[in-house]
Amino acid sequence: MHLIIDGYSENQEILKDEDLLAKWLESYPARIGMTRISTPYVVRYMGPELHDWGISGFVFIAESHIGIHTFVERNYVNIDVFSCKDFDAQRAIEDFREGLQLVKLRSCLIDRDWPQPESVAVNPPGFTYHE
Amino acid sequence: MHLIIDGYSENQEILKDEDLLAKWLESYPARIGMTRISTPYVVRYMGPELHDWGISGFVFIAESHIGIHTFVERNYVNIDVFSCKDFDAQRAIEDFREGLQLVKLRSCLIDRDWPQPESVAVNPPGFTYHE
Question: Which of A76, A107, A129 sits opposite B128 (nearest CB)?
Answer without folding.
Answer: A107
